[in-house]
Amino acid sequence: MRLPFRLYGRQESVHDYVGVLIPLEEAYLHSHSARSGKSEFEEANNSSDASVSDEPESGQPKDGDNEDTGMLQMSAAEYTIEGLRREVRKGESRRQWSEYEIKSKLINKAIQDIGMGRYNWQLFVLCGFGWFADNLWMQGVSLTLPSLSGEFGVSEKQVRYTTSSLFVGLCIGSFCWGLGSDIIGRRIAFNVTLLITSIFGIWASYASSWVSLCILFACLGTGVGGNLPVDGALFLEFLPDSSSALLTLLSVWWPIGQLVSSIFAWYFITKWPVEQGWRYFVFTIGVITFIMFLIRFGIFHLFESPKYLLSQGRQPEAVAVVHGIAYRNGKKTWLTEEILDAVADTESRERIRPRVSAANIIKQNLMSFSIGHIRPLFQNRKLGTATLLIWFCWSTIGLGYPLFNAFLPQYLSHGGSGGPASDESVAAYNSAPSETYRNYAIISVVGVPGSLLAAYTVDHKSPFLGRKGTLAISTLVSAIFLFFFVIFGTTPNSQLFFTCVEAFCQNIMYGVLYAFTPEIFPAPVRGAGTGVASFLNRVLGLIAPILAANVPGDGTTAPIYMSAILILAAFVGIVLIPIETRGRQRL
After folding, report:
1. Which sign, positive or negative, has the C-alpha torsion 301, 307, 309, 314?
2. Rounded to two decimals, what is the model's pTM?
């Protein structure tokens, strides 16, 4: 049995995976095109030269050309060093491709030729645990609010600060783990986040006061906050280009986490006394999180991201990881270090791999947490504009989403009466009957098909769909139905209907957003880009409970109006993003 420390101490080597390497001249027999039935002896375009010479003067790639399809349909003649050199330099005629970008495109091609297999599907489940845990705890904390009012004597408005404590941890976790995964690697962060979450989650069920509980929720947030930026970046970098819709489908685990949380809350909180039900509930989801950590750490051997290894100058390990994927999937690969260097024209250069002390490594890692690590996100106008707009969308959604969803059990408990919330703790608790948790479970079920629909539409050829179109439409509809909830949600049934539509659209929105965001950024700063986006999302989410607790009036309508306006602002930002990643290669 492999010892746990070897998961981090062992370096991958091509010698561990004998039998997967094939000569380059035989690569077309094992290519993606061969499996999909396309002729390997037909040029995808009339000629390579024509495809380059037909570039628009603006330097922007055309929809059916270059990055979009060029590396996915290759003739047998192109599985040569010269053919690969020609292919990886397609895209923007005036652009000087860096060595990293060229090698990343070759790794993309190698992973594409290996295709989806056992390793990728296992990773789909394990990365799904991160999405699952994120909403399991976000909704889990929301579901305990009425009970916390009842046990600790906290008013319905004041108890909303419990959610703020969780968001403090989420802010810290998303920022540190997002940047940290670019520095220490995806693999360590992938496992540690769930461990932290489970430890503090179980501990929270024994909290003796509301303040201590808030502190423990903040601590578990530092773990769960890193799941989405780390797991999304990791899964993306092992995903074949032809299966890119699976990154959106990964979000199906998010509503499942909400569903499991609502079912356990419905069972425990409604059947046990106020001081016991929420504790059993929190303890149970803490144990579930720990089981997911054990599966990740003790059963599954995770490869480090080959693009992370490449960006760190660890090319032999990056090639070995590709061989390992082929081995686990029962496929062949043509990728070698020699091919990478020859295609990138680096075979004649002296390659220096510096050896530094542990102290220098720590110093370099600390220096990486600087503006210099984020500056590449603004290396050109197009990427810089897309970066700012996607961060704006994450910010507005980060504030708008919890203003409605984090307090949904409280809104539903009023049954559309619009009456003021009582400041008496017992009344706050009694205002959340079994029907409220039942309706919450129904809403959770309705959200699941939203993620499935999103996975279909993100790669649809319609100009109104794709990544941007699907994201924009779902965001707009979400904003509209938030207004409907306040204006027309005057009965429990009408509230349930509007919230079900809202949940369906918001799961589409978040599913596409989490897939679209890491695709925008190059791999060396992908963790930083997604980490900052997630950090902004959490910071604004931290403000939401403060607004909801201090807004004038009864606190049941103004927060929802603000939520609708913010989601509408996100829609405008999405429409203005200058990048559509549908069908494009990831660097």
Report:
1. positive
2. 0.74
Quote the tokens at residue 482: 């938030």
Residue type for position 328: R
Calculate the CA dihedral of residues 218, 223, 229, 235 and round it to 10 degrees: -150
Q: 352, 346 in Cβ contact below 8 A?
A: no
Supply φ then ψ for residue 171, to 5 degrees.
-60, -50
DSSP string, 409-429: HHHHHTTT--PPPPS-HHHHH
Q: Which two tokens stand for residue 553?
A: 């009036």
Q: Mean pLDDT per segment of 10 residues, for the chain of length 587 residues? A: 42 84 80 60 39 38 40 57 78 66 86 90 92 90 88 84 88 80 80 93 94 95 86 84 76 86 90 90 96 90 86 88 92 89 64 39 46 71 86 91 75 56 41 70 86 80 80 93 87 86 88 80 72 80 80 73 92 87 55
Instruction: Give the whole-angstrom CA distance, residue 398 versus residue 68.
Output: 31
What are the backbone angles phi and psi of residue 415, rounded to the nearest 5°? 60, 25
The C-alpha angle with vertex 205 and arms to 200 and 211, in degrees rounded to 5, equals 80
CB atoms within 10 A of CB 63: 13
